[in-house]
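Reviewer comment 2.1 asked that we show a complete input and output for one of the modelled complexes. We chose the magnesium ion case, as it is the one discussed in the main text.
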Amino acid sequence: MPVALRPDRAPVQRRRPVTRLAATDADFVLRVTAEGRLLAASDTVRDVLGWDLARCADEGIEAALSGSAQRVAVGRLLAEAVTTGGARTTLQVTSTGGPRWVDVAAKHLRDEPERPVLISARDVTHDLAAATHLSSSELQWRVAFEHSPIGGALLDDHGAILVVNASLSRMLGWPAHELTRMDVTDVVVCQGGLPWWDWWNDLLTDSQASSTADRMLRTARGERVWGRLTAASVTSPPRVIMQMEDITGRREAELELANRALHDGLTGAPNRFLTRQWLASALEDDPDGRVGVLYGDLDRFKIVNDSLGHAAGDSLLLQVAERLRMPLRPEDLLGRVGGDEFVMVIEGVRTPAELADVAQRLAEALDEPFQIGEHQHAMTLSLGGSIGSHPDTADDVLMRADMALLRAKRSGRARYVGFDPAQDRVATRADLQLEDELRMSLASDELRAYYQPIVTMGDLGVVGHEALVRWQHPQRGLLPPAHFLELAESSGLIRPLGGWMLSQACRDAATGSGGLADAGWVAVNASPSQLTRPGVAADVRRALEESGLRPERLHLEITETALITASATLVKELHELSELGVRIALDDFGTGYSSLSLLRQFPVDVVKIDRSFIEPVLSDRSAYAIVKAVLSMCRDLALSTVAEGIETEQQLDLLRELGCSHGQGFLFGRPVPLPVRVPVPLHAPTPLVNHERRRA
Ligand code: C2E
Ligand code: MG
Ligand code: MG
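Response of the prediction step:
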């Protein structure tokens, strides 16, 4: 290494003066030439380290270093500082009081005349010693730290990384000199932030105590690994010694175990526990949504198991699970909840017919016989179904589907049965309470009539309103029909409810100021169960008489299901009402049997195309094709058409183009209580269709 001797001259006798430097932050400060000759030093260099400053000025600081390893380390430090501008290292030096560990930083001061290197060093002996119980031998500790298979770091109280060992560097992929420029939070992923800082602060205040936490760590390659951090703090100066153990493998194993606890080992399908959880969150996630549940049980599975053995049984179950998955969408859940019991959870099911359709496809998936060894086996499935919506619990819906399954088994197996409250009476406690409350609501004036405008597609003039029931529940607030209609049907309360709505709507439609007297027709919904008993015509007649509303201004909205299952009496009554002048609208067209022949057999005046076709009409080719066909057929039959659920201008434009005559949807107005604001132009309640001709 360069020594400040000039070979062409005799050694200089006069010693060079060494300037005194104040040791500020650091314990030792030195200024040396690039070759290592001492230019200036803090007093501590002489007093604590015992260096001969004059000799260092002449011969270079190497003269004061005892071992060759130290000399090499300092030589490297200076060379690196001169080439890169700055460098750091940790090394052991000999002091008057014995060996000491120092963290050394070197900075090349290129702008100063002698282009010196400024070296500042901090005594970290105490920190390192304090962090271990090996205070007797710092060297031993240092060796243990450096060669530990566990990552280790020394941090200051702000989290700046001061020293790291090779294992940590390897684990995180950053070289040591880069890590020592980083903060611990550059390495630890502080999800949520706060818990991390709580942990850090506790660590610093409760010194000497060690504390452990599992954290996600960030590697140089951008990957995430799991680390178990064990840390202890020491004071004066405040430091944290941290060990980081890579526990990624263990964490993954734990996750795998958790996963296994939630899945069936044979088929890999969610088990009963997970299926139930899934259903519960599906019900909670979308309070307005409806979730279909199918409960399936293989018919006579026990025979296969008993006659061919468990291996054959397992093979069959595996194949069944695979086939049942096929007709389901990726977002649907297939769970195995018992030996040969499967549960399918299907979100977004709107009608019982839709659920029955899925059940049909599941049954068909098992049509082909199963190959078990050399044998072929036919296997059938019994299915029960139920649709749940908020505030049903997962158990409510599962229980209903299970009850329906029981009926499917009893009535001959290999079939699907939908839950029917009349036959599968399993009212839950919540149901019973709500039912009581609903019964009282009728008496205590809690039902409300809301009105949503219906417009002509031509100039968007309002021609009428649909009356939609709401329940102003004293505790739960305003409830939409989805929350209580099913219950009203199953408990028989739909009749008084329907009766109330009919009279209210007729009264509102006949009332002048604040009412709907000038607002076209009013459409009232009648559910299938309301129509099963004779007397509809009489009810309507009475409501019209009491309110004084002209029959032409009343529309009765009935569903396809009601027509399909209509008794001869109902057909007669509908004709009677039609004669009287009341218009019949076929509601939710497309969601039931969508039988076009219905339109010819019954006195239908208006067809309301269900929102489930209007919503995707721009994006879904088959929805578009259906809407187009229905509209063209209605035109041929001279029927009016109402597109339900129009929300965008684009839908409006397309439906107008396809020849739809009327529209209803949030684009024109949401359902609101009276008084409704009727925008101009308001159209006179002219007949929607050529009524006379249709009656002829
Ligand atoms: P519905 O007869 O098909 O009534 C139309 C439903 O679609 C209403 O829901 C309405 O608020 C909603 N809607 C209208 N335009 C839009 C739109 O642009 N976007 C969306 N997302 N929805 C739209 P509501 O009021 O919740 O009623 C639901 C169903 O409850 C009705 O469907 C009807 O079948 C039944 N219902 C309502 N009131 C009564 C009633 O008094 N008696 C009977 N039996 N059933 C009723
Ligand atoms: Mg309706
Ligand atoms: Mg509808």
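The first strand starts at residue 19 and ends at 21. We note this here for comparison with the apo prediction described in Section 3.2.
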